[in-house]
Amino acid sequence: MARALTFVCQSCGAAHSKWSGKCDACGGWNTIVEEASTVPAGAGARRAKGRAFALEDLKTADELPLRRETGLAEFDRVCGGGLVPGSALLIGGDPGVGKSTLILQVLAAQALQGGHAVYISGEEAMAQVRMRAVRMGLSQSPVALGSATCVEDILSTVEHGPTPSVIAIDSIQTIWTSALEAAPGTIAQVRTASFDLVRYAKASGAALLLIGHVTKEGQIAGPKAVEHLVDAVLYFEGERGHHFRILRAVKNRFGPTDEIGVFEMTGRGLMEVSNPSALFLGDRSGRAPGMAVFAGLEGTRPLLVEVQALVAPTGYGTPRRAVVGWDSGRLSMLLAVLEARAGLAIGGQDVYLNIAGGLKVSEPAADLATAAALISASSGKPLPADWVFFGEMSLSGGVRAAPQAELRLREAAKLGFRTAVVPEGTKGESAGMELKPVRDVAGLVLLTGGVAGDGSGRGRI
Ligand code: TYD
Ligand code: MG
Asked: How far is the CA of 434 from the centre of ligand 2 (A)?
């Protein structure tokens, strides 16, 4: 047996020849750990002899079964249309967000379509997995269950049965290989075990789903160690206290990375939400000041969300800023622009900003809706209920164009909105919305500050 000593950073996976307090690769302090890896003599003997193929001799894309739909439409949308045989996917998320639930549903959907789906749990006993399946009404689905943590056991088990069309490992942090002495959960173990599993997937044509917990720093443990091994990285996100969950692709070799899938966590598992705008719009029946609807975009999917602002006299010396679902730096910027370019002095007051439904909005095009909500909150006049906003605000106070205007407008029209406040030059009359172009923040104040809240839904300027 050959014994090799390496020092591996537990945060980024970089290998060093000696120990040091700081990792040169990622800058992390105290993250380097000595890992003794014992490579059994003759390891690699099983390896197939390398062979090169001419690209033109390989099957063309039409002949290969390119994608297999799982049957869970929102999941397929994020993957780019389904699972690619032989590909590896990493699904990350906070503990308790619903990763195991999601994967069980994906496997059950796949099994019901005739695929051979295998679920290996390293965290829960089989009885626990079954209890969950019963609760979700999936106990009759022909999913093969296994409870194992050693990668050699897992591989020999699946290699003896029929080749799975999809195999899920829950979670990579619990899987270890006997080829290494390092403790399970260390970078070396996670990397080696994942590598073996990915190699099995590529050789067999099974789609591999690896589940990974996100560490408190917001990264999948050993992110660099695993992310480059897999073809796609998906994040499953959700706010505490809210029932909806969002599946987002951050890396995808086979499809776009800006797609989202929306689910709602119910007592019987995750339900797909095909019209997320309705979910994020909140209760639109009552009209209060400080509410503006942003016609947003997540990937190729338009999404309407309600931005809520509250401006209140400050009780202490320093005004409070509380932001949920938006960037607090961007709020400070907008407040400064409103004050400097439109003379709206909200800066000295407490400002609260919330995106309804617990969604996180990162599009710059949300500026206009947020500014409108702030103006309305400070003037005390509600905005008309059938208005939507989109456009980016620059430091000069100018309103800049946002991409895919037509798509946003059509979604708004579909949900009953009639008027859109948009950057100057926006095209999209065919969507059937009345467009109110604004050139700068002063124009926005004029437009929204002067609107009478008469409840008719039609604005008067
Ligand atoms: P789980 O899939 O175990 O999360 P993870 O694998 O990401 O750690 O989901 C755990 C949470 O989901 C748990 O707090 C309960 C909730 N849940 C429901 O609300 N309804 C259900 O049908 C299921 C199965 C779970
Ligand atoms: Mg789990």
From this structure: 48
- pLDDT, tens digit, for every residue of 73-99? 889 988 888 899 999 999 988 888 999
Q: Which of 99, 101, 246 to mutate to test the pocket of ligand 1 (most atoms within 8 A of CB)?
A: 101
CATH placement of domain 66-274 = 3.40.50.300
Q: Which CATH architecture has domain 279-448?
A: 2-Layer Sandwich (3.30)
The atom number, within ligand 1, closest to the CA of 269 reads 22
Rounded CA-CA distance 365/49 in Å is: 54
Backbone dihedral angles phi then psi of residue 368, each to the nearest 5 degrees? -65, -45
Ligand nearest to the CA of 170: 2
Q: What percent of the chain has pLDDT over 70?
A: 86
In tens, the pLDDT along 171-213 reads 888 888 888 877 777 788 888 899 999 999 999 999 999 998 8
- Crossing angle of the two packed helices 441-449 and 367-379, in degrees rounded to 10: 50
Q: Which residue type, as a one-letter code, is found at position 12?
A: C
Spans of all domains in the chain: 2-39, 66-274, 279-448
Across-strand partners of 391?
none
CA 96 to ligand 2 centroid distance, Å: 7
Q: What is the pLDDT of residues 18-37, one digit of tens each?
A: 888 888 877 878 878 777 65
The bound ligand whose nearest atom lies closest to the alpha carbon of 236 is 1
User: Which residue's CA is the closest to the ligand 1 atom numbered 23?
Assistant: 269
Residues with CB under 5 A from ligand 2 (ion): 100
Alpha carbon of 97 to ligand 1 centroid (Å): 6
DSSP state for residue 364 in the 8-state scheme: G
328 phi, psi to nearest 5 deg: -70, -30
Higher-confidence residue of 272 and 9: namely 272
CA–centroid distance, residue 269 to ligand 2 (Å): 13
Query: Would you say 304 and 293 are in contact if contact means Cβ atoms under 8 Å apart?
Result: yes
DSSP letter string, 151-213:
HHHHHHHHHHSSPPSEEEEE-GGG-B-TT--SPTTSHHHHHHHHHHHHHHHHHH--EEEEEEE
Asked if the domains 66-274 and 279-448 are classified in one and the same CATH topology, the answer is no
Nearest CA residue ID for atom 22, ligand 1: 269
CA distances from 168 to 84, 109, 116, 120, 293 (A): 14, 13, 11, 6, 39
Per-residue pLDDT tens digits for 407-430: 899 889 888 889 999 999 998 777
- Among protein residues, the one with the nearest Cα to ligand 1's atom 9 is 98
| Nearest in space to 448 (alpha carbons), one of 337, 396, 371 | 371
Closest CA to 364 of 396, 390, 341, 329: 390
Residue with the nearest Cα to atom 18 of ligand 1?
Answer: 267
